[in-house]
Model the fold of this input.
Amino acid sequence: MRLLASTDIALRLLMRLAAEPGRVRTAEELSAEVGAPRNHLHKIIQDLAGAGLARTLRGARGGVLLARPAAEIRIGEVVRLLEEGQALVECFRPDGGACCLSADCRLRGVLARGRAAFLAELDAATLADCLPGSLVGLRSLYVVGDSPS
Done:
């Protein structure tokens, strides 16, 4: 399976936030760290905040931080949220797509089971499970020249 670029960015953003759960991060800071344009990151942050995964703060000291502990955020939850409406293949589209195979094609079932197994594996992992063993070890993930406050 291939995830959307925005899902990949969102997962990296959540990992950065989870590294320092109480720290408010600016979109500019996160944009540089995850390698995504700031405008694109704003949309992702809005989606994550709308789903209760991130919390945004306005004002001079505003920014974004995790809304829930990393141990309560399942990777499958994030992927489902951000991949909603994305058809794995043509015949998974709501309108049935333009598949030329017959209605009794068995590939659709195989792919559906594969997708379910993929998401089940992601459901088994939390954001905390994906972090290095200690938050001290996360210092090595910072962009060169960047250091946590």
